[in-house]
Amino acid sequence: MNPPIRMTYHLKLKPTPTTIACSSRKKSLIRSKTIDYLCIGHLTEDITPEGIQLGGSATYSTLTAKAFHMHCGLVTSYLSTELPPLFSNIETSIQTTNSMLQFENRYENNQRFQFVRQETPPLQLTTLPKEFYQAQITHFGPVLNDFDPADISSFKDTFIGITPQGWLRENVNGKVHKTSWEKIAPILTSADAVILSQEDIEYNQQTIVSMRNLCRLLIVTEGYHGAKIYQDGNEYHLHAPEKKEVDPTGAGDIFSTAFFILYQRGFPLLLAGKIATEIASLSVTRKGLEGIPTAEEIIKIIHLQKHNESRKDG
User: Fold this and answer.
1) What confidence tens digit (pLDDT) does each residue in 178-189 have?
2) Helix (H) or strand (E) holding 207
3) pLDDT at 1
4) How many other CB atoms are there within 10 angstroms of residue 18's CB atom?
5) If you ran DSSP here, which 8-state letter would residue 137 be given?
6) Where are the beta strands (DSSP E) in the chain?
7) Structural domains in the chain?
8) CB 3.0 to 4.6 Å from 195: which of 71, 176, 219, 309, for a disulfide?
9) pLDDT value at 312 more than 60
10) What is the pTM of this model?
11) Are 39 and 73 in contact (CB under 8 A)?
12) CA 235, 264, 136, 296: dihedral to nearest 10 degrees?
């Protein structure tokens, strides 16, 4: 198990995306070859009523980390070696493909039904640039068996965040079906934080009990009910603010990314969770990639939540 890599509780977002500063063993971190946030997973094409849109955990998570002014890296697949302009100023390792992973999502009674319209070959993680293995945070975000879970063992001196939904399902005749979680049990002990939704495990409480015994930190998101945090035998509930939901797509990825960054930067567990919950809740009020938070929104939420915490302490 990797020791947790943490920083002192402080995160400062500069007006320019090229500079990051935080209190830590290094007083300030200026963009260099060091990657702050590396995300690994397929970009997807999502079929929506408005047409085909870019999606996938790798999209939502990387763009959210970029809004936090992280120096981002992305390992993914795409139709060419150049990604769309949305991904400017991001270090990339791209596996070119003739067809992208394509999903169609349908929502009924707060449940998501997913269909696979097109598949793509798995990612190969054996020949990445050296600096990719030295990222401060590495987020493994598969959406449909994007790569071998065993590849995590190649990433050692990094904060490991896992959103394992893509290893908990499979394509059965064009429809996404849930699979057993036991196949990822060996990697759970390697993670600093594991985040998944109750939908990913089909609302099975026994699965949560089993997984929390293996995880250093487990968070189970519950949609508009918020999320539950499990750590060291303790359980905490994060309440989500009431919002008028327009599109929940990507909210879980946005929550996970915000939490990984804040927690790794040294924010207290519950404060990191509350801030991440507020950011994710804001995202559902907009459609698709419009739900990605802006740096200004992130700063406002962080300041508000820190102020609320200081009032409680006072």
Assistant:
1) 999 999 999 999
2) helix 205-212
3) 45
4) 10
5) E
6) 12-13, 19-21, 29-30, 37-40, 44-48, 51-55, 72-78, 91-96, 101-108, 111-118, 137-140, 159-162, 169-172, 175-178, 193-197, 218-221, 227-231, 234-238
7) 30-313 (3.40.1190.20)
8) 219
9) yes
10) 0.89
11) yes
12) 120
